[in-house]
Amino acid sequence: MPATPAWPPKSLPRLFVRAQLRDGVRVDLDADQANYLGNVMRLGEGAELLVFDGTSGEWLARISEAGKKRMALTVEQRTREPEAIPDVWLAFAPVKRTQTDWLVEKATELGIAKLIPVITQRTIAERVKLERLRSIATEAAEQCGRTRLPTIDEPISLAQLLKQADRAIYFADEGGGEPAASAFKPGPAVILTGPEGGFTDDERAVIRAAPNAIPVSLGPRILRAETAALAALAVYMAVAGDWC
Q1: Which residue, 102, 130, 105, is CA-closest to 116?
Q2: Spatial contact of 192 and 171, defined as CB atoms under 8 Å apart
Q3: Is residue 61 a contact partner of residue 75, using CB atoms and an 8 Å limit?
Q4: Residue 50 belongs to what H/E stretch?
Q5: Residue 48 domain-assigned?
Q6: Structural domain includes residue 4
Q7: Are 29 and 72 in contact, with CB atoms under 8 Å apart?
């Protein structure tokens, strides 16, 4: 059946799978996925669902084998091509776990391509559990209809970010800058936001001295660190045309 606005049904479950998808391929699900479909969603042999592998788009699949602890799918046809997303990275200072989890979830929903935890002088998070964040991003992508997963890098220092980023760095500067809506331009970019309490004066000076850094303002109010990151990303996506 050809894809139309009404098909496949949007209510079908969606899963990210690590197998490379193509017509007719068999996919053996892991135990957690089999438990979710079989025991939570109550799906059995013959049931349809949507799957994606992060590179080849979205596919309609059917449960071909269902057991107590294992399940296999057969891929039937592609329903959507891989999504096109702006080449924008979010470099953020990790905050407390709950807020960082929320930031990763919402940034994934907004269409971020890459997330980079950045350690600053005021960063309070002692550890960044990448596997947890990647799991959160995967679940968010399954829920919101994305066909690509964002990359989540190992934490790096602010100095490393400034040295490695060979693209525009839009720096959310509490000291002021050009309004974000007019400063952002389509094209490869990094949005850099700070920790609770903001960047130190020394850090602000170092960032402003970087040749590719562009200070931007996020408005007249004081925003929490995670709010600032998502507000900046939302403005960038609107300017880049991702929501048009």
Answers
A1: 130
A2: yes
A3: yes
A4: strand 48-52
A5: yes
A6: no
A7: yes
If you search the block for the tokens 């592998």, which residue do you land on? 53
Residue ending a domain, choose from 80, 108, 126: 80
CB-based contacts of 142, cutoff 8 Å, min separation 6: 14, 15, 16
**Structural domain containing residue 161:** 88-240
CB 64 within 8 A of CB 44: no
**What CA–CA distance (Å, rounded) separates 235 from 225?**
16
What CATH number did the domain enclosing 207 receive? 3.40.1280.10
Residues in the chain: 244
> What DSSP letter does each residue of 161-215 carry, written as one string?
HHHH--SEEEEE-TT--EEHHHH--SSSEEEEE--TT---HHHHHHHHHSTTEEE
Q: Return per-residue pLDDT of the chain as tens, 244 residues.
A: 455 555 555 589 999 999 999 999 999 999 999 999 998 999 999 999 999 999 999 999 999 999 878 899 999 999 999 999 999 999 999 999 999 999 999 999 999 999 999 999 999 877 899 999 999 999 999 999 999 999 999 999 999 999 999 999 999 998 889 999 999 998 999 999 999 999 999 999 999 999 999 999 999 999 999 999 999 999 999 999 877 6
| Residue type, position 212, single letter | N
